Give the backbone structure.
Amino acid sequence: MALTTPSVTHSPTAERPFSALILDFVGVLTANAGPAHRTWCLAQGLDAEAWRHTLGHDPEASRLYTELEAGRLGQAEWNQRVAPILGLAEHENLMGRAWAGVRPADDMIALARSAAQAGLSVALLSNSFGLDPYDPYEALGVWELFDVAVVSEREGIAKPDPAIYQLTLDRLGLPGEACVFVDDHPRNLPPAEALGITTVLADGTPGNAARIATLLGVPTTP
């Protein structure tokens, strides 16, 4: 299980200009979830874009997802309330069923391990979508990567609220200038930059993990 207390602080060097790597989860440590969600929707007899469209555009489903991210609504209740919006009769473990086909991003996981082996602290900064009954971090086997884990459900705040970025720095025991943050949503980067954190947009570009490794001054991942 990930630690949620400050880790040992590592000082940057000329060869290694940063002391910590902060990673988002979805779209960074996971492969693109879209194909898996579309496959799942079709298997349920739904339109292929039903998951994306419902969570992103249905006002009530969007509101419930925001409540879920901030920990004001549990995943089990979210499942129960969103299933009928999707047009599904079965709500048990809805989130887990929809996410079952999403795979880890092997190159970014390798980068996290390479950074840790080089002496950097590695942190998770994630807007969660619930931990029970389905724990996505456990399902993809990434908890063990982190010295510090800041998950919105546990904290009651979510990106892009500046407070959650500052909380991550506090738990790392580092200034923003010592950290690199990787996220797949452009709107989540400016609050980090305002704290002096170097940001990288995970846009799916091939070789992105290798470029981040070079930025960090750690061995390039395969």
